[in-house]
Each structure stands twice: as C-alpha cells, then as structure tokens.
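Hi R.,

As promised on Friday, here is the backbone we talked about, encoded as structure tokens. Could you run it through your design pipeline when you get a chance and send me back a sequence?
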C-alpha cells in the first residue's frame, strides 16, 4: 500500500503543476489514483497523466498524453494517449521503493515521446502497421489464408453467415483453410477479390484511429505496385464491378515480416483500381492471418524448416512427443512409421491419451497433429520399418531428419 498524501508530495517535489485527476477520465483503465503534471519535451509543453492501479507497485505506472488527438502522431502511443514505454517482462521492479519506480518509469515514458518527436523511431510505425490499422473506425475483420509470395492475383472472398474469409485460389490454401473453417456447410458464398503485393521498400503511411480511409489514400497505396505488375493488376481489375469489392494488400516490413491491410468498397460503378473517381463507401479491412508463414513465425520459429522433411520411426510415448515438438519448431512435413496400436497400458504415458485406445498410432497421431496444427502435413505409414526398408518401399532420399525409437536393427538395415 502507498500513502496518497506522501505520493502527492513526491510528485510535487519532482514535477511541475501537479494536480489530482478524477479517475473516471480513464474508466476502462481501472485506475486507483490519477494525477496530472506539466513537462516540456523537445520544446513542446506536454500535460502528462500518471495513473496507478490498485496493484501498484507490483504493477508499473501508466502514463498518458493529454489530448493526444491534438499531439503529433508518434509510435507507441495508444488512441487514448497511453504511452507504451516498456513491456512488463522487460524490467525488474523494486517494489520496496515505489516512488523511485515512478521517477524511473517516467524517464522511459519521456524517452518514448522524445524519440517519437525527433522521428528516430518512425520505422516502428511500419513494423507495427497492422496494430494501428485494426484500430481504425468501422474496420471490418476477416480471416485470411493467402499466398503472400505470389504476385498480383485473384483471390476468393468467402461468406459464411457473419464470418468473412479471404483465401488464395490454389488448392493447397483451400485445403488448409478447411482445417480452420468448416467449408462443407451449405450457404457459403464466394466472390472474387484481388490481392496486391507492394514493391519492396514501399511503406504505407499509418493512420490515426480517427482518420478516415479515403480514396486518395488508397490511390497512394497503389503507387507502391511494382512497375512490372501494373499490367497484370489492371487486367485483374478490368471487369464488371460488383456491389462490393475487396482488395487485400501486403508489404514487406524492414524486419522481414509482412503486413496485410485490406479495403472494402461498396457502391462501385467500376473497379476502384482502374477508376480515378469513387463516390461510394470505403471500409478498412483487418485480416486475421491464418497463413503458415505468420502463425509459425509468431510461435517463435522462422521458415528454416518449411521445406524440410522428417522421418520418425516409432510412434510410442517418446516418438509421439518428438513428433509434436518437431511440428512446433516449424517442420510442416513429417513421415511417421509404426505398425502398433495404442494399448491400454500405454494410454497414460502417450500424448494421444485414452480416447484413441486400440487405434493405429500413426493414424491417430496424424488426425490429432493436423487438427491442432493446421499447416502440418503428416504421412502416416502403418507398417514395420524393417519390411519397408528391405522391400525398398520407403524413399529416404528426401529425408532431412531421422528420429529412431525402435532399437538397433532398423538402424543397421537403414
């Protein structure tokens, strides 16, 4: 617990024009105390709100820029002015000295404003573009499983009740999307959309949450299309316009990852890509990504193992866990070999558990892994490894990793 009178005196001793603020100003933040004070940063007078929740000093202070909508647009500041100056797991907090925690944490918050005003972290706008895009007014959220390495292409926009999804037309992407969304139900409709990758090094300008997405903004985005792709883009768009048109755009961030933003146009006379005037309505579209490049990288793994193939011989209690961990590291193709069924005495130590009792291990593992890791591809081989090797029924030329859990004889044969 902290003493409010002592806290106020500490702030008065260290900051200018300190005043207590009604906590209802930040209703959704669940603050216990809120104060304001004045600071000058890069020649600009800034009123800062300090917010402390009931867990402080076990939690970090919050700092807000007053009237941020009138303040220069800088990275790492949320729409209500909250300054994101660090991650909670990046700092060691001495909770026995709460007033020093306030002093030092404000220096971090102040530095965030300083480098933002100097333009030294503009690149963070680009690397975090999607987090700004999703805050825009009237944004429509859809799911997307798209081939971002392709050039400009036609894609399918699916509608299932209130759920909307975008998927590349290649069969591989439709098949993987089925693992996320049940596409067998009746009533799903599809329409054509367009996917556009922007030229490397072209970065869209970020928008404040209150900024409208205008046709002029969309046209500036189109200026980032690589010259060699222009004719293909115009050919894709030179068709009869529908009442609604979707355009999904991607660009490569400086950190090598890709960002996606989308546009929904309604009231189209011609396709927005090939017209110079548009009087209909434009909505920003945020794409909740389902593609393997995004999901696997977000899990902490890169694309190193995307094209690698592993062979797992033996799918018992050890082999089962090895298979799951290999998938988690980024392998998308595994061949698994075992001719045994899951028995009752092994059900507790095997990751398949009791519900898969008496089923062939390889078939049950394939079903489980492909369900919980939708981008995995498991080839289940229900046979003895010795027979496969002796009869040359197993192609090992393309195998990049071998994991053996069945003793020495198969290794000798191998």
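Update: got your reply. Pasting your designed sequence below so it's all in one thread:
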């Amino acid at each position: 617990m902290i003493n409010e009178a002592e806290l106020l005196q500490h702030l008065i001793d260290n900051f200018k024009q300190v005043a207590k603020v009604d906590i209802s100003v930040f209703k959704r933040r669940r603050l216990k105390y809120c104060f304001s004070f004045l600071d000058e940063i890069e020649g600009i007078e800034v009123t800062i709100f300090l917010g402390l929740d009931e867990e402080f000093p076990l939690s970090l202070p919050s700092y807000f820029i007053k009237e941020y909508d009138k303040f220069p647009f800088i990275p790492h500041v949320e729409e209500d002015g909250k300054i994101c100056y660090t991650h909670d797991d990046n700092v060691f907090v001495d909770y026995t000295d709460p007033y020093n925690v306030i002093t030092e944490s404000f220096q971090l918050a102040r530095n965030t404003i300083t480098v933002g005003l100097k333009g030294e972290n503009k690149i963070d706008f680009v690397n975090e573009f999607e987090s700004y895009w999703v805050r825009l007014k009237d944004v429509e959220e859809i799911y997307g499983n798209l081939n971002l390495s392709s050039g400009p292409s036609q894609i399918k926009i699916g509608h299932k009740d209130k759920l909307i999804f975008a998927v590349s037309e290649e069969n591989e992407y439709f098949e993987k999307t089925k693992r996320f969304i049940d596409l067998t139900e009746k009533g799903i409709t599809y329409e054509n959309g367009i996917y556009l990758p922007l030229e490397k090094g072209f970065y869209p300008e970020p928008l404040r949450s209150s900024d409208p997405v205008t046709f002029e903004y969309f046209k500036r985005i189109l200026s980032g299309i690589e010259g060699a792709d222009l004719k293909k883009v115009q050919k894709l768009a030179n068709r009869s316009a529908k009442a609604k048109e979707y355009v999904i755009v991607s660009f490569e961030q400086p950190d090598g990852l890709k960002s996606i933003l989308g546009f929904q146009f309604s009231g189209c006379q011609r396709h927005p890509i090939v017209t110079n005037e548009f009087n209909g309505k434009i909505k920003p579209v945020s794409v909740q990504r389902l593609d393997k490049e995004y999901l696997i990288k977000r899990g902490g793994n890169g694309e190193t193992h995307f094209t690698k193939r592993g062979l797992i011989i033996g799918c018992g209690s050890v082999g089962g866990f090895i298979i799951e961990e290999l998938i988690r590291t980024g392998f998308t193709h595994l061949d698994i070999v075992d001719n045994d069924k899951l028995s009752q005495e092994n059900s507790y130590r095997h990751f398949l558990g009791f519900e898969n009792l008496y089923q062939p291990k390889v078939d049950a593992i394939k079903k489980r892994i492909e369900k919980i890791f939708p981008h995995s591809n498991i080839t289940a081989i229900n046979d003895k490894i010795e027979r496969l090797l002796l009869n040359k029924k197993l192609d090992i030329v393309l195998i990049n990793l071998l994991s053996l859990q069945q003793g020495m004889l198969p290794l000798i044969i191998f």
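One thing I noticed while checking it: The two ends are 67 Å apart (CA to CA).

Thanks again,
M.
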